[in-house]
Automatic annotation (TrEMBL), chain B:
This is Peptide ABC transporter ATP-binding protein. It is found in: Cell inner membrane. One of its GO terms (biological process) is peptide transport. GO terms for cellular component: plasma membrane. It comes from Devosia geojensis. Pfam families: ABC_tran, oligo_HPY.
Length: 337, 348
């Protein structure tokens, strides 16, 4: 049995706004295992970024964790519930950067434009460890080389604007990894990059993960990327987790109609070009006007009146590590792809 | 599907778009050139979908904007075959009023459905605006026409009184498509038209574009970076690298057997949505970044990252774009001798 490093259970996050309360997360549960990569997949509005931000207690205002727990197990086996910690408190400050590193989508927004990149990578090191500057600088140069930044000594004094998008993302990764965190939370880290650069960054994350025995929580909307790097997959839709399984099951034996439809709507190389893509009808519901019952039912091809539109379905374990939130699972659903 | 013999609708010949780089300070002397598009030639055949792909900075967007005459190309010609039988005009030689009739024939669909619609105009005004500018009176017929256009793109005609903010990204993109269709164009230039959309909505939009192409006999120039989408919708694909066309071939041939090392690397980087292939596929990884278009490497612009560079001819001599036997154009000295790998899941 794999060791669990984070257990998220029934997490609810609300954003009270003028027009009402947006339930960004409506009872989200999943596990992150030690040394494994878990991908959180979903379309816009599914709550995947909010999940990532909750892990670090950096929700944007007016978001707040309404209930649920995020139980983090540290190096000594001590368990901390991140969900109940004050965002600016001592415990969170000790976890952020040290225990959990984070990489965001757009590298330019996570870097300061007026500080040299070397100094920026060094900052968490000086915060979390008692190190002399010279020693810290050595560690930074080492990390820069490790993430594939050419000529670290010269690049140390560069500003972010002097670097390409791919190199900036490497700087952000170096910053996230400099304290050797046990968990890396990466929110769409390759979405703004070219495919060629994306491939290199994915390789890098994979390599560093193996070297450092780190867990990775990788947020993406790209199913191709999921297939490339995930061990486990959490599929989210409109604030709920609809399916969790290992990557092979997700792609080859998915149970939830949304997961299946999502997989079929991706254009694939070598598919029959004369057939239209299997699009999902309709669109993601507005967060303030979500349908009753199962949130996916208006778009679902397995929709059953009287069942799907009345009560929210329970999450069922179809296998020990394969959970599906669908009332129709087990009811003669035809074999998936 | 366009036949190889299909009539050419648009012919781009030796097109260049060089932007001047000026020095800081008051003098603003021209100190260099960014060669965003540099001597590009290709044909667009009537009824086909030609995709242009490449990394950011390769000049694909600039190329689209030159075709739209948003930019004034610095050299070359864009020869367009008009609706009058046999008449061919050079769009780069025309300006203002003379260009206007052709602006109705060539329309654009933009990437960002949030930025490309005026938030202060209703959908009726947005979709009807090109018609009004073309002299259509603001009457019941216009109202009807806008309603028809909305239905064509899968929106309800009652929506026309609403403002863009009331729509999702996918619906806005449909509004943009309806606007582009309003003047019965022949050629649509779509610059990353589906990139900003969610997977499920992206599929709807791609299906819509394919349907409209058949109904209106449209020709598409589809500028994109997502190769799975490109493979699905294109008849032919053009690959650009630092302002130059490096390969152009029918889609199936290009994906199955690329002739340019850059195409091979690009195909190899596409993530495959099947975890079982993850370990089986050997990937080519490109070192470094795309070359700087203001300081293009000597010889073949790709030689700095190319695994097959001979370190001699490739460094000295710019490879010309040559036509191979299978309706393919390629700019590599060794196109005939290299045995390059196609996209992993496409059987050859």
């Amino acid at each position: 049995m794999d060791e669990t490093i984070v257990e998220v259970r029934d997490l609810r996050v609300d954003f009270p706004v003028m027009a009402g309360t947006i339930e960004a997360l409506r009872g989200v549960s999943f596990l992150l295992k030690r040394g494994k990569t878990t991908c959180i997949v979903g379309e816009s509005g599914s709550g995947k970024s909010v999940t990532a931000r909750s892990m670090m207690q950096i929700l944007q205002k007016p978001g707040r964790i309404a209930s649920g727990s995020i139980r983090y197990r540290d190096r000594d086996g001590k368990i901390t519930d991140i969900a109940t910690q004050p965002a600016g408190g001592r415990v969170m400050r000790a976890i952020r950067g040290r225990e959990i590193g984070m990489v965001f989508q757009e590298p330019m927004t996570s870097l300061s434009p007026v500080h040299r990149i070397g100094e920026q990578i060094m900052e968490p090191l000086l915060l979390h460890f008692r190190l002399q500057r010279a020693e810290a600088r050595e560690r930074v140069l080492e990390m820069m080389a490790r993430v594939g930044i050419p000529n670290p000594v010269q690049r140390f004094d560069n500003y972010p604007f002097q670097l390409s998008g791919g190199l900036r993302q490497r700087v952000v990764i170096a910053m996230a990894l400099i304290c050797e965190p046990r968990l890396l939370v990466a929110d769409e880290p390759t979405t703004a990059l070219d495919v060629t650069t994306q491939a290199n960054i994915l390789d890098l994350i994979r390599e560093l993960q193996e070297e450092m025995e780190m867990s990775v929580m990788f947020i993406t909307h790209d199913l191709g990327v999921v297939a490339e790097i995930a061990d486990d997959v959490v599929v989210m839709y409109a604030g709920s987790v609809v399916e969790t399984a290992d990557v092979d099951t997700t792609f080859h034996a998915p149970e939830h109609p949304y997961t299946r439809a999502l997989l079929q709507s991706v254009p694939r190389l070598s598919a029959d070009k004369d057939l239209p893509l299997a699009a999902i009808r309709g669109m993601v519901p507005h967060p303030l006007a979500r349908p009753r019952g199962c949130v996916f039912h208006p778009r679902c091809d397995r929709y059953l009146a009287g069942t799907c539109d009345t009560a929210e379905p329970a999450t069922i374990a179809v296998l020990p590590e394969h959970h599906v939130k669908c009332a129709r699972v087990g009811q003669d659903i035809t074999q998936g792809r | 599907m366009a036949e190889p013999s299909a009539a050419t609708l648009l012919e781009v010949r030796d097109l260049s778009m060089h932007f001047p780089v000026t020095s800081a300070g008051v003098l603003r002397r021209v100190v260099g050139q960014v060669k965003a598009v540099d001597g590009v030639s290709f044909c667009v055949r009537e009824g086909e979908t030609l995709s242009v792909v490449g990394e950011s900075g390769c000049g694909k967007t600039t190329l689209g904007r030159c075709i739209m005459r948003i930019y004034d190309p610095t050299a070359g010609s864009i020869r367009y075959r008009t609706r009058n039988e046999g008449e061919v005009v050079d769009l780069t030689a025309l300006d203002g009023r003379a260009l206007r009739p052709y602006r109705r024939d060539i329309r654009m669909i933009f990437q960002d459905p949030y930025a490309s619609l005026n938030p202060r105009m209703t959908v009726e005004e947005i979709v009807g605006e090109p018609l009004v500018l073309a002299g259509h009176p603001r009457n019941k017929a216009l109202h009807r026409r806008v309603g028809d256009l909305l239905e064509q793109v899968g929106l309800r005609r009652e929506y026309m009184a609403r403002y863009p903010h009331a729509f999702s990204g996918g619906e806005r993109q449909r509004i943009g498509i309806a606007r582009a269709l309003s003047l019965n164009p022949r050629l649509l230039v779509a610059d990353e038209a589906v990139s900003a959309l969610d997977v499920s909505v992206q599929a709807q939009t791609i299906n819509l574009l394919k349907k409209l192409q058949v109904e209106y006999k449209l020709t598409y120039v589809f500028i994109a970076h997502d190769l799975s989408v490109v493979e699905y919708i294109s008849d032919r694909v053009a690959v650009m690298y630092v302002g130059k066309l490096v390969e152009l071939a029918p889609t199936r041939a290009l994906f199955a057997r690329p002739a340019h090392p850059y195409t091979e690397a690009l195909l190899s980087a596409v993530p495959i949505p099947d975890p079982r292939l993850r370990k089986k596929v050997e990937r080519i990884r490109l070192a470094g970044e795309i070359a700087d278009p203001s300081n293009v490497p000597s010889g073949c612009p790709f030689h700095t990252r190319c695994a097959y560079s001979d370190g001699n001819r490739c460094v000295r001599e710019v490879p010309a774009l040559r036509t191979l036997e299978d309706d393919r154009q390629v700019a590599c000295h060794y196109a005939e001798t290299l045995e390059l790998k196609g996209a992993p899941q496409v059987a050859t």
